[in-house]
Amino acid sequence: MCYNFHCISSPLIHFALYKSHHSPLSHHNFRSIDQSINQSINQSIDPQFIREQMFKFLKDVVSGSGAGVKDLPYNIGEPHSSAWGSWTHSRGTSKDDGSPVSIFSITGSSANDGHLAAARNGVKRLRTVRHPNILSFLHSTEAEISDGSSTKVVIYIVTEPVMPLAEKIKELGLQGTHRNEYYAWGLYRIAKAVSFLNNDCKLVHGNVCLESVVVTPTLDWKLHAFDALSEFDGNNEVSTGPMLQYEWIIGSQYKPMEMAKSDWATVRKSPPWAIDSWGLGCLIYEIFVGSKLSKTEELRNTASIPKSLLPDYQRLLSSMPSRRLNSSKLAENCEYFQNKLVDTIHFMEILNLKDSVEKDTFFRKLPTLAEQLPREIVLKKLLPLLASALEFGSAAAPALTAFLKMGAWLSPEEFNKKVLPTIVKLFASNDRAIRVGLLQHIDQYGESFSAQVVDEQVYPHVATGFSDTSAFLRELTLKSMLVLAPKLSQRTLSGSLLKYLSKLQVDEEPAIRTNTTILLGNIAGHLNEGTRKRVLINAFTVRALRDTFSSARGAGIMALCATSSYYDAQEVAARILPNLVVLTIDPDSDVRSKAFQAVEQFLQIVKQYHEKTYAVDGTEVTASGNTSLPGNASILGWAMSSLTMKGKPSEQTTQAPPKSASPFVTAVSNASSVGSSVPSTTPIRTVSSGIADQYMDDQPAPASPTSTDGWGELENGINEDQESEKDGWDDMLPLEDEKPSPALANIQAAQKRPVIQAKSQASIPRPKSTSNVGKDGDDDLWGSIAAPPPKVGAKPLNGNSSAAVDNDDPWAAIAAPPPTTRAKPLSAGRGRGSKPTGLKLGAQRINRTSSTQKF
């Protein structure tokens, strides 16, 4: 006998479609149904077979089961030492992403086993009841497992990762005040969960005890074990049967008197919370005694119960059900729950309901408060709450201080996992206060960043601070580069960072200009050789050494010393020493002292080059005869903060600040690699004090840089062909081979001649303004060895170009301008004794003439 295809398959297909919407393993069931349909069509099978198949799949739909353990999308791991009732509590992981879970399982001999029926009730209740203090349900399945000749039925429940409360208490090992604070927080959460079931849902848990509580990784207590959970039917006066269908699985020691006597009429007349309030009393006893309750009489032993909790404990265990304390009253009014830990966590959990003043006050106290709370709870509970609040913007900027302080208590691995991801997200915040907080504490976490994270995610957001209108934020951004720059790529360093630093060297704040020079000296080792050749000398000499702020000039000297190993002898002799010698007569004593030290250091480099290249008799010697010099200083200290500059920028003076406000680190440096060419031997001439003041005070501030990185494009490190009149980053030109004036030659000869009779000052010939002077005007015996006259004559120092040099001052003829430059004529009325003009901010540029001479 054959059945019509539609008649047989149609009901089964309906069940299959229902199954596809309600079972997590619907694809397997649909495949089984399809096989059954094909089997029914191809064979003559009694309709009873079809009904059995339909009943089997319907049962699977109702129970929410799957086809077996092999289809469970989780891996079952090691079991915990304890679990509620007949359940086994095991660790587990997801097969998809490896995330941790907990897997509860219970086994029955047959599908009609009473424990399995109660377990199915627990699965249904746990799936439908949702509350922050109730265990979170993820998945469930029921499977048949063959064990030789018999078949067993197993139910699995998959939840968030938790562990038994007794096991976690033993692991934490808290004592004294910390233990009481943690117990108070846990009991508070369980009381809120029980109140939700009794008062809001009108449900009775029936078995609140130590084993029905589990702990999450964030140390939160959660309620589970819903096998006996039932509706409270107190309004049903006609019913005489048990209100709790599965009350027989509850241990007798946890049953209140009316339940132990099966007086269900009294139970129905009692408040909904009567049974579970008794259970809360049992839980309190077990956690403070530290062991499971073995008989009801033990509840009278109150020696271990805290005095502040004892009155409420006794009310929970009242012999009269109607007088038992409601769990909601326990959570709201109990004195034991009023402590720092409970108040702190409760404030964090309702943070969105607080106003800005309350938040600010709370977070300013939190760093100190966190030290007084249990360390384990702070790291596992408060730290994640803070991270979430900062990421979503509900926390104020002061929370960042507490967040970083807590993060410092973590191991490096946990810090990278729990703290760094939040910090990276915060760098994208538009809140200026958050950005300031991140930059102020960057030394606490900056080293933990990977180079890729800094270059791609952190630096693009930090760089916006370089052009911020707040001088304080610009300065913090600048100082943060000391930590971040070593992790930046060469492309970012040369293409982005140096552009910002070039602009900051002409910032209106003197301290920012000074700290920019210091930063360049500290990160020079991370720049490639070509960039160093193009940038360092220009930045330190053209701008820093000519700044009107004395500390900026001092920073330029120190930066040159700290980076001396990057300069060859030719650069030292032609570009560095001429600029340093000028500062030996600087108005500021600290600058002069640093200048003399630097001149000695760089002269030693040139001397070493000479000894290494030429012997006394003109033959070359080996490099083994070099004089060793100290190595580069590791880090230069920051100058004072720009916030300490109370006056306006135009009111700053060139006087050196107190040494305490400018903690420069003494920098010594190593000799650079020796260049291939011989440096010029032209003597370096110093400038009188009056002219030095004029050069430092009377020059206009340089314009904004126009080159790629702000320091100009140089060929082989020196641009000698043309001079930019726009960007203010012109290179220092080498010295010209100028010959001294006739008057200078006469004086030099007179200094070497035996002293017989002093010459009158009136006999010193006057210098001519432009023309070269021959030997015919000098008939002294030493004229033949005197230095040749200069190619370009110096302009007179007074306002009248045709006026003669003062005969009363024999040194006026040799008061030459700085090396490679031509003295700028003074304006009318500005003589040597005139009062200097007011200072101007920014690096001051000295106008120099072009030179075609090359080294």
From TrEMBL:
Residues 718-735 have a biased composition (Acidic residues). Residues 55-337 form the Protein kinase domain. Residues 810-825 have a biased composition (Low complexity). GO terms for molecular function: ATP binding; protein kinase activity. Residues 694-855 are annotated as: Disordered. Residues 758-773, 846-855 have a biased composition (Polar residues). HEAT repeats lie at residues 576-614. Gene3D superfamilies: Leucine-rich Repeat Variant, Phosphorylase Kinase, domain 1, Transferase(Phosphotransferase) domain 1. This is Protein kinase domain-containing protein.
